[in-house]
Amino acid sequence: MIKAGTAHWLLHDVKNRGLTAWLLSVLLTAFYLVLYFTEWFTPPARAIGLDSKWTLYGLLYTLAVTAGGLWVIRKYRHNRYQIVRTSVVIFVQATFAFSIPHLLKFLHQPEYYFSYLWPLKMDYLTPSYIFSLPLPFILYSFLGSALMVPLFAAFFGKRWYCSWICGCGGLANTFGEPWRHLSDKSSTSWKIEKITIHTVLGTSLLLTALLFISWGAGKSHPELARFTTGFQSFYGLIVSSMLAGVVGVGLYPLGGTRLWCRFFCPMAALLGLVQKFGRYRITVKENMCISCGMCSKYCEMGIDVRSYAQAGKSFTRASCVGCGLCAEVCPRGVLRLENKSHRDPQESILIQIQPAPSARPLI
Amino acid sequence: MHYVIIGNGVSGITAALTLRQRDARARITVISGEGDYFISRTALMYAYMDRMNLRDLEPFERKTYDKQRIDRVRAWVRDLDASRHLLRLADGRELTYDKLLLATGSVPNRFDWPGLSDVKEGAVHFVSLQHLAECERLTPSTKQAVVVGGGLIGVELVECLVHHGVEVDFLVRESWYWPMALAREEGDIIAGHIRAHGVRLHLEHEVTAVTAAPSGRVAGVRTNHGLDLPCQMLGICIGVRPATDWLKEVATPPAIGRGIRVNPSFQTPLPDVYAAGDCAEFTRPDGSPQVEQIWYAAKRQGEQAARAMLGDAVEYRPPLFYNSAKFFEIEYTTVGDVTRLPDDARSFFHRLPGPHASIRLIERNGAVIGFNMLGSRWDHTFFERWIAERRSMADVVPQLHLAQFDVEFGRAHLESARVAFAEYQRRNGLQAA
Ligand SMILES: Cc1cc2nc3c(=O)[nH]c(=O)nc-3n(C[C@H](O)[C@H](O)[C@H](O)COP(=O)(O)OP(=O)(O)OC[C@H]3O[C@@H](n4cnc5c(N)ncnc54)[C@H](O)[C@@H]3O)c2cc1C
Ligand code: SF4
Ligand code: SF4
């Protein structure tokens, strides 16, 4: 039931696909279309002394993450995991994803974003681009994607990236907090997600392979080089601009905050595959779930957490970004994010509980 | 084989799913007067506070029932004729069964305070979807409310009303909050927390009279201390009892005590009629009646009753008691015996650093028998294990960290508990661990 008063009605409306949510979604989408496909933001950027519309965008993005993040920290101030995680998200956005690249540029170095890695940032394994950079950047790109990404994911799950470092996840978990519950929880959407996200992953792998082949053999096969360039701009338009930007953020108020992360992000797909075989899991306390459904409701990845919790099954889902909100909202403390390789030896011993002398009534 | 289940709560639905798992061919029908789909009663408060939609309260996707071929009938059952294996519904339909499970749950208690019979509107309960709808209908026209009864449903209703900006007077009969489950120290922590939310909590207060406005809407209550509390809603949360009233008027009533009497195989004396969940009454070895009115028990009983109906040899014995709850923001975990203790039981209570966190361990004859934990998260299965293994408190206290279940970076600090326990042992002339 909505609280009385216009302000509460509006808040409910914008958070629950009401008219205001549709309006906001149209605005956000229009913003991204203008940003990507026109130069309208260039003059205002110049007017405040910024070199390009992208710097203006970076500034707005950082402000959104910071303001949203501070509000999230306040909201979950009793939960240390949320405080630490959100602080890191704000810090990474303000430094690695904003000020450091511009500082590098100022120092006549490449504008390099250490918080983005292939395959989220395709450029960083695009040979014609990456090999034009100084050696440390080349090493970071290759080792980052080949070693750091899978290794950290094996130990900590994909959360180390998706909900601690990544800017897309960062925006979702700060500015996007009011819409996290809109993710679709149906088993049908889970089926669709598995198809779409792995399609994008496959496409990105194919594109990277083609980029390397045409980099090596493009001179002697001009038609291959042409095809690859076409493919690359197609991928850039559809995946990086339309899906990550326009759909990913534009539809926050209608489809929830992690549409991009859940259905399309190739990085999330890759991390998810590693996560499935790694240490990370959500441990479910046996027989303590009251099936209230708060966990499912507030899972931004549309995971029906309750279905595992009420069955008493600890679980690792490839899509889980480890935001920890299911554990936060659970009124019975049933869930815990863990990355232990195995449970304490104590925990694995099954025990037979003796019947108790008494049972107290609940109410 | 046609299995019919009356009640689509957690016990009824768990039974239906268990039956289907084991018997692919049987016909299974679930009847409920409350709603079309199984909902989580425990989450009614979140719907009331707009943290969830009604649809979110359904623990299973709707297509599950079709997939599992569980027929749903929306109706109140009025008559049961066990000699003809026949049910009659309120809308006149008749239904035959081969085996019947009564899983009718609980209904709220009501006390006939003077004046209550004049109240036509505004005296509410908080147990069913219909109650929720009534509360939601009345809330916008309510400035002040009185909630009677200091149990878990009472505090949930209070939280909802506070959320909606209603001024609440909360009447609790006992001298501290919820002595049924909490000792005085914990009761004081919770009472302080409830008051910090702006609720006027009145301990040792009972309703003596209720007044109604000419419109029939509740207007106020008077307490045993002469307090006159104006209100437009009166929340009556003085416990629940098994939903058996309708069974007293049927053609073949089952044996009814506090609940529907069953043997350890969930059988009523009527042929092919079983009962499980909140409505079922078992008999303890000492002959006293036992009704378990909590979610976990209802789920467990539903599963085992289904097995009994399938012909398994089932000997149900309620396991060690455990429960959890949340009082506004304070989480609570309990296992075993913690109140109404024998004289030779010892109790170690300690307040952990932090606003509301505390631990309590109970020991008797050198073995822990109970845990009561507030304000931080614990894995109750460890407590169950330690109790089953008859470990001593001195053995358990240094290992408590194993049972902690707080979020990462957020573990409650237990060092002070170890220090306090050493002091407790010295005071009691016990050897330090
Ligand atoms: C607000 C609230 C909060 C709670 N919180 C907790 C908690 O945190 N932890 C906990 O352990 N327990 C909690 N409980 C208790 C818990 O919900 C119950 O123990 C549990 O729901 C019992 O399940 P059941 O299947 O036996 O019955 P119910 O869930 O009560 O289901 C019985 C169903 O049968 C229907 N029915 C009854 N008679 C008939 C008839 N003649 N014809 C047709 N249909 C009929 C009823 O309408 C109802 O839908 C809470 C209860 C309430 C009300
Ligand atoms: S399952 Fe929990 S931790 Fe994982 S994404 Fe969903 S809410 Fe976050
Ligand atoms: S929030 Fe907790 S109690 Fe509620 S369904 Fe999820 S795990 Fe179960």
Describe what you observe in this structure:
- The complex is a heterodimer of chains A (363) and B (433).
- In chain A, helix 7 crosses helix 14, helix 10 (187-217) runs antiparallel to helix 11 and helix 10 (187-217) packs across helix 14 (266-277).
- The model of chain A is unreliable at 344-363 (pLDDT under 50).
- The longest helix of chain A is centred in the middle third of the chain and has 31 residues, at 187-217.
- Helix content of chain A is 61%, strand content 2%.
- Chain A folds into 2 domains: 6-269, no CATH class; 276-340, Alpha-Beta Plaits (2-Layer Sandwich), CATH 3.30.70.20.
- Chain A has a two-stranded antiparallel ribbon with strand order 1-2.
- Chain A starts with 5 loop residues before the first helix and ends in a 15-residue tail after the last helix.
- By secondary structure, chain A is an all-alpha fold.
- Chain B has 433 residues and is α/β, with parallel strands linked by helices.
- Chain B folds into 3 domains: 2-106 and 241-309, FAD/NAD(P)-binding domain (3-Layer(bba) Sandwich), CATH 3.50.50.60; 116-238, FAD/NAD(P)-binding domain (3-Layer(bba) Sandwich); 322-427, Enolase-like, domain 1.
- Chain B has helices spanning 10-22, 44-48, 63-67, 129-138, 152-163, 184-196, 295-309, 380-388, 393-396, 415-427, and strands spanning 2-6, 27-32, 70-74, 77-81, 86-89, 94-96, 99-102, 106-108, 123-124, 144-148, 167-172, 200-203, 207-212, 218-223, 228-230, 233-236, 240-242, 260-261, 273-275, 280-283, 289-290, 322-327, 330-336, 345-351, 358-364, 367-374.
- Chain B has a 5-stranded parallel β-sheet with strand order 3-2-1-7-19.
- In chain B, a hairpin with a 5-residue loop joins strand 20 and strand 21 (289-290).
- Chain B is globular and about 70 Å long.
- The model of chain B has no long low-confidence stretch (mean pLDDT 96).
- At the A-B interface, helix 5 and helix 15 of A face helix 2, helix 5, helix 7, strand 22 and strand 23 of B.
- Bound molecules: flavin-adenine dinucleotide and iron/sulfur cluster (SF4) (2 copies).
